[in-house]
Design brief:
Elements (H helix, E strand, L loop, with lengths): L7 E4 L2 E2 L2 H4 L8 E7 L3 E2 L2 H16 L5 H15 L6 E8 L10 E7 L9 E7 L13 H12 L4 E5 L5 E4 L3 E6 L2 E5 L7 H13 L3 E4 L11 E6 L2 E8 L2 E2 L5 H11 L4 E2 L1
Parallel strand pairs: 7-8, 7-14, 11-12
Antiparallel strand pairs: 1-2, 1-6, 3-5, 4-16, 5-6, 8-9, 10-11, 10-13, 13-14, 14-15
Length: 266
């Protein structure tokens, strides 16, 4: 058993070798990332649907959710126990570059991670992800801009199109507070798992949601904003030079609903 704190990588339930890993380095594939606590994850069905849908789009075949769950359970068992806490990433790629050949499922397990406490400061950057609806492996642009803004003291990059329309964060979704309504920017984006979990919980609680174009110059008119990804939710203190309120009642309600969301057994 790998000791907790070490990285474990398996492909289709077996320890990955350098030869196994080589096809995965080609860059054509997709993945999902999750935080596991006690052998459970938020939004498991959303993760499995993401993997199946992207596999169909990229490789022309489905990906059975029970196969994925089995590989995750096996990797967790070898890393620190099936009921432990961990960060898990599932990559899907084709080992043999030939139409109709089977896809491989790579599971990487690392120590658990959480979102750093406190409101975040965000900087807008002129970039939008290609094929944004897929969580694909080509993330150079995001990584480049994250490093640029972190070097300037910011916590996240906000991806903005040529007309100033906000799409998403580099590794997050952006939500905005407009009175009693949660607003999602209407631009090409990845429908993140944390966002889907939150949408479900907001719907159950009867909290209105809408999608509309949002410009960077519009942000000062909102009652608050937050970032969401697999590590959790964070309020936003400022975007560029625009300070955002942190005391909106709905902003606190959003955080509470997400934290109360159920965890699914893998």
């Amino acid at each position: 058993m790998t000791r907790p704190g070490e990285l474990l990588i398996e492909i289709d339930g077996a320890a990955a070798t350098a030869e196994d890993m080589w096809p995965a380095l080609g860059g054509y594939g997709h993945f999902t990332a999750m935080q596991v606590r006690g052998g459970r994850v938020r939004g498991l069905d959303f993760h499995l649907a993401r993997l199946d849908g992207a596999t169909r789009e990229l490789f022309g075949t489905g990906l059975d959710g029970e196969r994925v769950r089995g590989h995750i359970r096996h990797a967790l068992g070898g890393w620190g126990g099936p009921d432990g806490d961990a960060s898990v990433r599932v990559n899907v790629f084709r080992p043999v570059d030939a139409p109709g050949s089977p896809v491989a499922v790579l599971v990487a397990v690392r120590p658990p991670a959480t979102v750093a406490p406190g409101p975040k400061r965000v900087k807008s950057v002129p970039y939008q992800r290609p094929v944004a609806h897929l969580k694909h492996t080509g993330g150079f642009g995001q990584g480049y801009y994250i490093r640029q803004v972190e070097a300037e003291g910011y916590d996240e990059a906000l991806l903005v199109g040529p007309g100033g329309e906000i799409a998403e964060g580099a590794v997050t979704n952006l939500g905005l507070i407009d009175g009693g309504t949660v607003v999602w920017p209407d631009a090409p984006y990845l429908h993140g798992i944390a966002m889907q979990v939150l949408e479900r919980e907001l719907g159950r609680a009867g909290v209105p949601m809408t999608r509309r174009p949002v410009l960077v110059t519009d942000l000062g008119g909102y009652g608050g904003a937050f970032l969401a990804n697999s590590r959790g939710l964070s309020p936003i203190a400022a975007v560029d030079g625009t300070e955002l309120p942190l005391d909106a009642e709905l902003l606190g309600r959003v955080m509470e609903l997400y934290e109360a969301a159920p965890w699914d057994v893998i």
